[in-house]
Design a protein that fits this description.
Blueprint (H helix, E strand, L loop, with lengths): L1 H10 L45 E6 L6 H14 L2 E7 L13 E2 L2 E2 L1 H29 L3 E6 L3 H10 L3 E5 L14 H9 L4 E4 L8 E5 L4 H13 L7 E8 L10 H11 L4 E6 L2 H9 L6 E6 L12 H10 L4 E4 L3
Parallel strand pairs: 1-2, 1-6, 2-5, 6-7, 8-9, 8-11, 9-10, 11-12
Antiparallel strand pairs: 3-4, 7-12
Length: about 325
Amino acid sequence: MQGIRQCLLKKWRVDVLIPVNPSANINHIHSRKSLIDLTSSKSITGGYSIKNQVMRKIIAAFDGLKYSASTRQYAIQVAKEGNYHLVGVFLDDKTYSSYKIYELITEEGVSDARLKQYEDKDKATRMAAAKDFEEQCKKAGISFSIHHDQNIAIQDLKHESIYADLLIIDSRETLTHYTEKLPTRFVRDLLTDVQCPVILAPSKYKPLEKVVLLYDGEPSSVFAIKMFSYLLPTYAGLEVEIISVNPVSSSLHLKDNKLMKEFMKRHYPKAAYKILKGLAEDEIIKHLKEQPAGTLVVLGAYRRSAISRWFRESMADVLMKEVKLPLFIAHNK
């Protein structure tokens, strides 16, 4: 029986706890499709327990012509601390280049020689960006791979997000020649229809040292906290603060106080609670500007159809404009 158990454990892919009692019926294990190595994983009581080697997939999106070093650094930090697989998605959109059409025009018309010169330069720039990503991942000792997507950038990235647990991208990303005010058109379009949680990276990297969870009592804000805790459990060891805002005329009572604290006790038992009074956007911006540069902000609901007391679409927009902190954004659909 023990030999049969060993054989089954080597072949099965499961994501549920296995009874530590050696006499337990092996048929009670519920099979799923998660990658978990159960071999050579004995508990101190003589039975079997899970040796979790599930490797989540994180994608970091890059414009190879305007390579974001901060995105690379945040992505490598997250992947290394969580032992996740990191995919560098280089959006080599064929319709996008570093040069403008008028730069190709000479007195004789469009110069083929000049076009080839510019195309070769762009190719070399993109290759150098991917090479840097590869070298930094190797230096960090993480599992990684590289995708070169050559179709329409926004469509390719949304499609990539279907098969990712988390996406990291520079909050300033435009995939155009131009610099745009935040939030950029590309980022707004992405967040509206992305298929996984997103971390928006600021222009300068700072190691994460604190987490601020924005909570308004709505399902969307709780969902974002859940996704953050599931995807990035290692950050539970950082300083964690929960921020909520009530109207001036109300008390400092946390909405669904008992249920929320019961939930948080299981995820962030040492979290501090701060209830502010006033207009949500004003109070949150003011508070976040006082936080250290290594603070990650967690919020929910970016959908255009989302209805929330104050985590509506404009909240994420305002945070991108007003604070230079990484943002973790997740929405339930």
